[in-house]
Structure formats: structure tokens, C-alpha cells
Amino acid sequence: MHIEPRTPTVKNPPEQFAGDVWVEPIVRPHEDGQHATAALVRFAPGARTAWHSHEKGQYLYITQGTARFGTRDGDVIEVQPGQTLYTPPEQEHWHASTDDGFMEHIAFLELGDDPSTATTWKEHVTDDDLRGTTTVDASNA
């Protein structure tokens, strides 16, 4: 057993994010057969990911602010602190903060045998994507 060294916080790349988004790794695999990862991700007001999907799905636990998530069908879901959003394997989606506040979540994801295929990045999210067709408050779902 040992204490993990602190990993520096880094700003995410503009090819995959719009606005300021920082990631602080928490968990990474150490041994053969281990695939779990976790990171604390902080979004400045109005920041968002590009469209993407995860080979094995993803859990996002909201720790601060209101998180907005969208899918290709146009649905937008708002998730509050203390709630967890599950995204199934290969579902294309995006994450964003609201325009008026910071948002923070802990992202949990399992890597496959090839970590480079864990996340597939697509095009940037448009303003129309952010508006969506419906907004559902996950606290009432």
C-alpha cells in the first residue's frame, strides 16, 4: 500500500474542449488487468466538451454547480451536486457548465485493453446543440 503522488492539474486541449476546462487525475491503473480511472474535472462558466463517446461508458458525479449533458437526439439534462450521471458505452454526448457558474465533476471510466480507444472524440458542440430540444432536471427524474 502507498500514497499516490499528486498529479499536476492540466488544462484540457482546445481540440476536445471549448472554454477553460481543467483535469486533475485521481485514479489510474497500476497492475495488469486494472482498467479504472477517475479524474476531477472543473469547467469555467460556459465551457463544454466536444461530442464524444466512451468505449465502456462513463459515470460522472457532480460535486459543484449545475452540469448540462446532451445527446444526439437533442435531449439536454441538467444534473445537480450529489447526483451521478451514467452514460452507456458508445453513446455520443457532451458535458458543459452553465453560462453563469463553474461546474465540477468526478469522471469515472474503465479503459479497455487499448487505453487510446477509451474515448472517441468528434466535432465541437454548437450553440444549437447546447440549447437542445428539451431540458430535464435530473432531480425530478
Question: Which tags fit this structure?
Answer:
single chain, Jelly Rolls, mainly beta, Cupin_2, six-stranded antiparallel sheet, four-stranded mixed sheet, RmlC_Cupin_sf, 141 residues
SSE order and pairing:
Layout: E1 10-11, E2 17-18, E3 21-27, E4 36-43, E5 48-49, E6 52-54, E7 58-64, E8 67-71, E9 75-79, E10 84-87, E11 93-97, E12 103-110, E13 119-121, H1 127-131, E14 134-137
Parallel strand pairs: 9-14
Antiparallel strand pairs: 1-3, 2-5, 3-4, 4-12, 6-13, 7-10, 7-12, 8-9, 8-11
Summarize the structure in words.
The strands form four sheets. A six-stranded antiparallel beta sheet has the order 1-3-4-12-7-10, with no helix packed on it. Strands 11-8-9-14 form a four-stranded mixed beta sheet. Helix content is 4%, strand content 46%. The mean pLDDT is 91. The longest helix is centred in the C-terminal third of the chain and has 5 residues. With 141 residues, it is mainly beta. It has a single domain, classed as Jelly Rolls (Sandwich). The chain is globular. The N and C termini lie far apart (41 Å). The protein contains one helix and 14 strands; from the N terminus they run E-E-E-E-E-E-E-E-E-E-E-E-E-H-E. A hairpin with an 8-residue loop joins strand 3 and strand 4.
